[in-house]
Amino acid sequence: MGIRKLGYVGLNVTDIDAWVELLGRTLGVGVTHAKVGTDEIALAELDEFKYRVALYPSTEDSPRELGWIVDSPRELERLTQRLGDAGFAVAEGTAEERELRGATHLRWFTDPVGYRVELAVGEAKVRVGADRPAGGRGVTGLGHFVLAGPNLEELRELYETVLEFKLTDYRAPGLFFFRCNRTHHSIALAAAETPSIHHLEFEHASIDDVGRAYDRAKANDVPISISLGRHMNDKAISFYVRNPSGFHLEIGCGGIEVGDDWVPHDFGRSDEWGHHHASANPFASPRS
């Protein structure tokens, strides 16, 4: 399979300082800074690689790029051909963009809801390990994101047919989970009236690390948008906070891995327990 994992996410944000405060005080995530043109951006260090989340100063909060790591230049060429055959215009990333991402090759296209999707070969390892909060390992990496939009069938065609992700499971009438490796899912696609990222997930090493983050969120008055709970499908234990850009940030651990013998199915209800929403759940169904 050409795409190996979710590599990074770039966000346009109106309040970088609030993001840095959330990342540092509550999640124990270190932040470095870099110049892009005349702008100074913040780079969140979730693991030993250069960054996983880039925060760009902006007058609006919106996704800027969604980056996938591809196995090799040969696989990048193959996926480029598949995208072209499906009607997507693929462009080369600039030298500045390749350097920032730590990539040797970078191409991008626009998905059916208008977001920039990048395919990168290579990652830059710049540290032995990220700084961790006292008492645990804390954040260990970037897990997944949920993309919602009105073009659900076109998004499914892109990820499942063109980019060759595998369907893991789903909930009727419009929520689908896809994987590009053994992790239960790296992306979920949902039906919504307007395009958005519903949430982005940060992987943690253990339930104790999730619990400590929960305590810090409470102590720092971070808005907890979905309470602690365990998902029905991937079995992850997590809670969600409302980040400064207005969407959810999931703090989780313990998601399952699946093999080639996995059979996609409707998993019925959203959670084993918990995960009570502070406001209406846009993905709720009569069985939730």
TrEMBL record:
InterPro entries per record: Glyas_Bleomycin-R_OHBP_Dase, Glyas_Fos-R_dOase_dom, VOC_core, Xdiol_ring_cleave_dOase_1/2
Q: Which UniProt keywords apply?
A: Aromatic hydrocarbons catabolism, Dioxygenase, Iron, Metal-binding, Oxidoreductase
Q: Does the keyword Thylakoid apply?
A: no
- Enumerate the Gene3D superfamilies for this protein: 2,3-Dihydroxybiphenyl 1,2-Dioxygenase, domain 1
Report the superkingdom from the record: Bacteria
Give one GO molecular function term: dioxygenase activity
Which cofactors are reported in the record for this sequence? Fe(2+)
Q: Which PROSITE patterns match?
A: EXTRADIOL_DIOXYGENAS (PS00082), VOC (PS51819)
Does the UniProt entry include the keyword Oxidoreductase? yes
Record Pfam families: Glyoxalase
User: Where does the VOC domain lie?
Assistant: 5-122, 141-254
Which EC number(s) does UniProt give? 1.13.11.-
Q: Which residues form the signal peptide?
A: none
Q: Which family is this sequence assigned to?
A: Belongs to the extradiol ring-cleavage dioxygenase family.
Q: What is this protein called?
A: Extradiol dioxygenase
Q: Highest lineage ranks of the organism?
A: Bacteria, Bacillati, Actinomycetota, Actinomycetes, Pseudonocardiales
